[in-house]
Specification:
This is Histidine kinase. The protein is an alpha/beta fold and 275 residues long. It has 11 helices and 9 strands. The structure holds ligand C2E and calcium ion (3 copies).
Length: 275
């Protein structure tokens, strides 16, 4: 038993060292990166399952590093936050995303992810407002996605930054709903227009009585509060059918499309009949 335990902890520390080395590599490559050239925005459709139309796209960051190749956002966004590059990164991403959205039909929205830093000072929020105005896009086409963790650092400051974006006409979506801490109290305290039900409640939805109950309650809650609700991570027809039965309307997931390039998004809209 002793040997197993020791072997196990050695394996653990090896993978731990690897993870730290990887993070160091990402940090180094990110510091040297030409963000404008290396970072692209991909788009994942958000579909109204009543009309079968794409109502919006969520912008998702994609980084192709000349040294590391493709690095997923789940890996490089936290590093960018830690080393103070996230402000610049968000601004590059927002400019690119808005430039793409400018070519879509006016009724197609854009949903954009914000980090803690982006809403933790009035300067960074004002910079975002400036980018929106310079783009010429109707702010009502824009939703900003925030997470509960992004609110935790300085709730009052985050709330005032969000209020500013809301006042411009932008929508505010609470992302990964159900996975954080004080979901319900925050629902009340924030000027939200939308919630996004996390993928973890959708996986095998049709077979999971607990998930069915949770999704049903979240749909009822959002409807009672006058909020729209997007269900994320729908991968199968069975999950979609279950969601439809519960009254879900807005859906995002691999079943419809993975995140796609700007060119493919334009093509997708043409086939969708929206353009
Ligand atoms: P998120 O905001 O929750 O984004 C949804 C993630 O789920 C995306 O991963 C998307 O590709 C993935 N996804 C969508 N549908 C499905 C599905 O049916 N099945 C499965 N398995 N996955 C699905 P991605 O693009 O790797 O992004 C990961 C996270 O990185 C995002 O989670 C978000 O927190 C962060 N992120 C991505 N782009 C940005 C950005 O521009 N700014 C900021 N601040 N964060 C970003
Ligand atoms: Ca999101
Ligand atoms: Ca999410
Ligand atoms: Ca997430």
């Amino acid at each position: 038993a002793k040997r197993t335990t020791r072997g196990h902890s050695m394996l653990f520390s090896q993978s731990h060292v690897k993870a730290i080395q990887r993070e160091k590599q990402i940090e180094q490559a990110l510091r040297q990166a030409d963000l404008e050239a290396e970072i692209a925005v991909y788009f994942q459709p958000i579909v109204d399952i009543g009309s079968d139309r794409t109502v919006a796209f969520e912008a998702l960051a994609r980084w192709t590093s000349p040294t590391l190749g493709s690095v997923p956002p789940g890996q490089f966004i936290p590093v960018a936050e830690r080393i103070g590059l996230i402000g610049q990164l968000t601004r590059v991403l927002l400019r690119k995303a808005l430039a793409s959205a400018g070519a879509w039909p006016g009724e197609v929205g854009l949903s954009f992810n914000l980090s803690t830093h982006d809403i933790s000072s009035s300067e960074s929020a004002i910079a975002l407002a400036g980018i929106i105005m310079a783009s010429g896009i109707d702010p009502r086409r824009l939703d900003f996605e925030i997470t509960e963790t992004a609110m935790m650092y300085d709730f009052a400051q985050a709330k005032s930054a969000i209020n500013m974006l809301k006042t411009m006409g932008c929508g505010i979506a609470l992302d990964d709903f159900g996975t954080g801490y004080s979901s319900l109290s925050q629902l009340h305290a924030l000027p939200l227009t939308k919630i996004k039900i996390d993928r973890s409640f959708v996986t095998e939805l049709h077979k999971n009585p607990a998930s069915l109950k949770i999704v049903k309650s979240l749909l009822a809650l959002s409807s009672d509060m006058g909020l729209r609700c997007v269900t994320e991570g729908v991968e199968t027809e069975e999950e979609l059918a279950a969601l439809r039965q519960l009254g879900g309307k807005l859906v995002q997931g691999y079943l419809f499309s993975r995140p796609i390039s700007e060119t493919d998004a334009t093509e997708y809209l043409l086939q969708d009949g929206a353009a």
